[in-house]
Amino acid sequence: MSSSEFSDWIEDDLQKLRKEGLFRTRRTFKPLPNGRCLLEGQELINLSSNDYLNLAHDPRLISAAASALQEMGVGARASALVSGRTEWHARLEQRLADFEGTEAAILFPSGYAANLGVVSAIAGEGDTIYCDRLNHASLIDGCRLAGAAFRVYRHDRLEKLKRELDKKTGEGKTIIVTDSIFSMDGTWAPLVELCDLAEQHHAYLVVDEAHGTGVWGETGRGLAEELNVESRVTIRIGTLSKGLGAMGGFVAGSDSLINWLWNRVRTQIYSTALPPAICAAACESLLIIKAEPERKQHLHQLSVFLRQELAHRSLLADVTSSGPIIPVILENPERTMSIAADLQAAGFLVGAIRPPTVPHGTSRLRISVTSAHQRDDLERFLKALDCSLARYGESR
Q1: Could you tell me if 32 and 38 are in contact, meaning their C-beta atoms sit under 8 angstroms apart?
Q2: Domain extent for 209
Q3: Which of 6, 273, 389, 390 has the most C-beta neighbours closer than 10 Å?
Q4: Active site annotation includes 183
């Protein structure tokens, strides 16, 4: 294929995306304190952020990162396995292990790298992976990369998963993979039931706590702590880029598990290590989460309020769910983008999520509450949403 033919193919595909309402533009964004942001120069209340505990702009994190930046410079300069693991990486891994109540922890350059690398490392030919259909793309990609038999299940229809597990034969490993909190729906994985199934069928259970860390559990370790099943989960993966306000992924577990991951997981072995300054900021985050539980409490109070108000408007797809990720399903991608534009004009930035991120027919506003917000912010948002929905005939 010539370069001109390739360009024509790209333009044809771009036109298809535009026609289907799925074209994505690049925008310039600047985070501000107090749950605000600048988008193309317009100041907005940011309801698209996953900085759940309002730590990314905390002066203590900034100070910790600045001190480490002066001491260590910007980049880590090598992979952690070669020479990139500084004392800040070692300190963060120890603090994560202490926080998670495990013997050890290992860092990854991103949560995506942690999921992709771990799942593809523990499974291979002859094994079988069972993956929830709503799992994050990084988990799905890890399952596909592993080369194992790949089965998809629905967490709201576990009887199918049970039948599949009952039928499985052979000597290969059986692995169940799930998010703890599904990122586009905000719903919980049924971890108790999944632990039961894993134990009954001698399966390994891998749980990604990306949207659970800092948000759920008495100490903020995630949904597995909230449901008291931490000891029953084979591998717990987390991220530093959401509730902790920093960057990177991690796994916490036994010394044996962490040593095995250190030697086997390609996304860790072959990636330059996190910047030391980021590690210093994440260390500070863990201290704040422990010392200031009121952040999590305020977050949940706001989430409950907004969910109740949306439920009264019949705008919640699942009234039994809870937490700061709140979807409003609008089905049509063009309508979703139009309502998001109305909200932006009224001063609010909300995620407008379309396929392929979510299934066709489920385009949505993905509202994300953080502890930076106040009730008045949400009340004004609801008024703006009401006006836009009425304009497009979406009130229910």
Answers
A1: yes
A2: 59-291
A3: 273
A4: yes
Residue 211 falls in the annotated catalytic set:
yes
Q: CA–CA separation, 104 vs 12, rounded Å? A: 50
Q: Which of 211, 296, 298, 373 is catalytic?
A: 211
Instruction: Indicate whether 15 belongs to any domain.
Output: no
Sheet bearing 174-179, strands edge to edge: 104-108, 249-253, 235-239, 204-208, 174-179, 128-132, 149-153
Residues 81 and 139 in one domain: yes
pLDDT tens, residue by residue, 191-200: 999 999 999 9
Which entry of 48, 49, 183, 321 is annotated as an active-site residue? 183
242 catalytic? Reply is yes
* pLDDT tens digits, 72-95: 999 999 999 999 999 999 999 999
Strands, DSSP E only, in 57-155?
104-108, 128-132, 149-153
Predicted TM-score of the model (pTM): 0.95
Same domain, 259 and 153: yes
Alpha-carbon distance of 44 to 342, in angstroms, equals: 12
